[in-house]
């Protein structure tokens, strides 16, 4: 397995541990066919129809061995088309035997299916493992009451993963409704106060199923069950979940607690070390997360600060552009106004000679200076306005408007289309120039 990544090597070991497949190349091939998704590979393996395999009989003294028994490998079907690697020589040699086994098993199953005792033992179809677990729990509670342990609602592989991840002991329980001792075991052991309290106090994860269902049947075969009811105590050992003891047949609560406590006392130290290491990892991860959070917050603050500065700079630049455009616009208006004043001066009618029909006007400008001029009394006072406009009206701004005012009595001349006579500015008058404010 040297060519595999460390996490892939760990997946191979876990898959071998769960499936009982001894050949590394076959385990690798199955995992590759499932894109190295360990739970999917295990679930696919466990939900296949069983192939008869010889489980080596063990003396009762060997039931406490810390390993899952090896079993014959099952062919794996994938959920969709998967590119398969080139078969190994071993696979090519063993394939005929595997298919031969399947052929003989199908013939044997078909023959035995006509016998009454065999029909009662037939395994139900490949139902969803999670649905199967939920169904088992509901039926168990219906038959034996609410004192049942908190059964794990999921597949066997998911239960193993959860127990390993949460550093908990695991108990696999497999019942057979056809067994005479099944009801007695469920009533006197699984629902006893002593048993359920111990399971709860020790936080043991309990996975259970009926051997009449597809996945529990496979699990029973994997765990080496030869007698029912069956329980297997599974614990984390050397980073792998392993069977540490098998309980076969009726097991009294006292006996179960005594045996389980003995194995726990042997494994509690390694569990304590694993939990301490997990706490250290979680603490280190928490520190890293806090550091990452602080770093991200610092980055966010710097980013917001930079964005704020950028917005301020953009607003300042935009304001400067607008002010420059406004200045240019004002200067253009001033230039047009200067050209307009020059044009007015050039287009004014000639000043008439002093005679009877002439109005003599005296104009006081805002700067205190005075202008005098004669106008035809029958002409419109717009000539007076244009005459004033053509002069420098400082301090009135070049772009500001002005109004001609007669001080006594006060009268503003806003209608420039009346004649000097109509305005009362004939034969002579004195007026002033006032700037029109924006409020006006």
TrEMBL record:
GO biological process: one example: ERAD pathway
InterPro entries xref list: Thioredoxin-like_sf (IPR036249), UAS (IPR006577), Ubiquitin-like_domsf (IPR029071), UBX_dom (IPR001012), UBX_domain-protein (IPR050730)
Chain intervals for the UniProt region annotation (Disordered): 49-80
GO molecular function: ubiquitin binding
Assigned GO CC terms: endoplasmic reticulum
Species in which this protein is naturally found: Boothiomyces macroporosus
Alphabetical list of PROSITE patterns matching this protein: UBX
Protein name: FAS-associated factor 2
Domain of life: Eukaryota
Coiled-coil blocks: 296-338
SMART domains, A to Z: UAS, UBX
Keyword vocabulary terms for this entry: Coiled coil
Domain UBX as annotated: residue spans: 354-433
Composition bias, Low complexity: 50-62
């Amino acid at each position: 397995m040297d060519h595999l990544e460390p996490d892939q090597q760990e997946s191979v070991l876990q898959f071998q541990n769960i499936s009982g497949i001894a050949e590394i190349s076959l385990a690798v091939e199955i995992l590759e066919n499932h894109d190295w998704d360990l739970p999917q590979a295990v679930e696919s393996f466990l939900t296949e129809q069983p192939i008869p395999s010889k489980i080596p009989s063990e003396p009762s003294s060997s039931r406490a061995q810390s390993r899952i028994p090896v079993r014959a490998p099952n062919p794996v079907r994938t959920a969709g088309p998967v590119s398969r690697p080139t078969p190994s020589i071993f696979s090519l040699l063993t394939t005929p035997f595997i298919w031969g086994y399947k052929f003989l098993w199908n013939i044997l199953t078909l023959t035995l299916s006509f016998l009454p005792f065999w029909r009662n033992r037939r395994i139900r179809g490949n139902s969803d493992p999670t649905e199967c677990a939920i169904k088992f729990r509901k039926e168990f509670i219906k038959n034996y009451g609410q004192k049942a342990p908190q059964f794990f609602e999921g597949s066997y592989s998911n239960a193993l993963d959860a127990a390993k991840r949460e550093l908990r002991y695991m108990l696999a329980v497999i019942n057979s409704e056809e067994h005479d001792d099944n009801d007695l075991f469920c009533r006197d052991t699984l629902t006893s106060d002593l048993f359920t309290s111990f399971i709860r106090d020790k936080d043991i994860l309990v996975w259970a199923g009926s051997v009449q269902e597809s996945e529990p049947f496979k699990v029973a075969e994997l765990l080496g069950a030869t007698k029912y009811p069956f329980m297997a105590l599974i614990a984390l050992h050397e980073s792998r979940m392993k069977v540490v003891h098998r309980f076969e047949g009726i097991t009294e609560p006292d006996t179960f607690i005594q045996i389980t406590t003995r194995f726990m006392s042997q494994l509690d130290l390694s569990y304590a070390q694993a939990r301490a290491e997990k706490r250290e990892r979680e603490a280190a991860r928490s520190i890293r997360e806090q550091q990452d959070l602080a770093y991200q917050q610092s980055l966010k603050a710097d980013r917001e600060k930079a964005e704020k500065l950028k917005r301020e700079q953009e607003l300042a630049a935009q304001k400067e552009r607008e002010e420059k455009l406004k200045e240019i616009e004002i200067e253009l208006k001033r230039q047009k106004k200067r050209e307009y004043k020059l044009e007015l001066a050039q287009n004014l009618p000639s000043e008439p000679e002093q005679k009877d029909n002439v109005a003599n006007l005296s104009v006081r400008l805002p700067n205190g200076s005075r202008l005098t001029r004669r106008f035809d009394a029958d002409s419109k006072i717009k000539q007076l306005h244009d005459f004033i406009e053509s002069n420098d009206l400082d301090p009135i701004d070049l772009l500001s408007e002005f109004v001609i005012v007669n001080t006594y009595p006060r009268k503003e001349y806003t209608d420039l289309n009346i004649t000097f006579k109509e305005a009362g500015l004939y034969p002579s008058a004195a007026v002033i120039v006032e700037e029109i404010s924006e409020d006006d």
